[in-house]
Amino acid sequence: GFSSLPDPNPAEIARIMTTLTKAERPAILAGGGIADQTAVPLLRQLVERLHVPLITTAQGRGILPETHELCFGRAGFGGGTSAADAVFSGADVLLTLGCGITDLVTYDYTAPCNAMVLTVDAREPADVVRSRTSITMRCDGIAFLKRAVSVATQSKTHESWLRSLGEARKEWEAFLSSYRVPKEGRIGAGY
After folding, report:
1. In percent, how much of the chain has pLDDT > 90?
2. Is 128's pLDDT higher than 60?
3. What does the mean pLDDT of the chain come to?
4. Which of 57-66, 83-92, 130-139 is predicted least confidently?
5. Which of 17, 98, 115, 184 is least buried, going by the fewest C-beta atoms within 10 A?
6. CA-to-CA separations, 30 to 33, 53, 63, 64, 75, in angstroms, rounded
7. Chain-centroid distance, C-alpha 34
8. Among candidate residues 179, 161, 12, 186, the one with its CA nearest the CA of residue 87
């Protein structure tokens, strides 16, 4: 992380977690700003406790195994998937970690972002959809994740949202299967 960044504000973390928990269709967009080995188990814990779909930017790809049941792949230009696009366009609350809503994620701002955007990033927000951003927290993403995981409670309240993404999930799994390395079961790096 970045040592000169302010610590995450506990009241803002609580607000973000409450907003995510109360949302009907929450999702997390993970980017390069948290693509660090320390963040991997923390992000996984957060996604699993909240039971929300995760999508990534190009730089965030692989932070959660793409075969994880809650991972829907990469959003945007240059490798975005229909599954990730379904999550992005369908979410009502989107927590962006280590990234913002940029021209790359939105296909040059042609993909709709109808969500309330909650941004946590070490950098100053740049190309975020400011009209829908209700919380922007400039802090170290790993410090945020540590605190967010500590206050997150186990939830299955978003099952109908996940069920509605069932077809998108099946398409994503079929896509991944086409890149599976025979006899090894792992996903190859060719896509």
Report:
1. 37
2. no
3. 83
4. 130-139
5. 184
6. 8, 11, 8, 9, 10
7. 11
8. 161
Query: What is the C-alpha to C-alpha distance for residues 129 and 146, in angstroms, rounded to an integer?
Result: 26
Angle, alpha carbons 161-99-119 (nearest 5°)? 65
pLDDT tens for each residue of 169-187: 999 888 888 876 665 555 5
Residues found in the chain? 191
For residues 11 and 146, the answer to whether their CB atoms sit within 8 Å is no
Classify each residue of 132-160 as buried b or exposed e, where b means 16 or more C-beta atoms within 10 Å of its C-beta. Answer: ebebbbebbbbbbbbbbbeebeeeeebee
The pLDDT tens digits of the residues spanning 65-85 come to 888 999 998 888 777 888 989
CB neighbours (10 Å) of residue 26?
A: 26
CA distances from 170 to 81, 132, 177 (A): 12, 30, 10
pTM above 0.70, yes or no: yes
Residue closest to 79 by CA, chosen among 92, 90, 66: 66
The amino acid that residue 102 corresponds to is T
- Tell me the C-alpha distance between 169 and 162, whole Å: 9
**Strand pairing report for 26-30 and 93-97:** parallel
The structure tokens listed for 84 are 């990730």
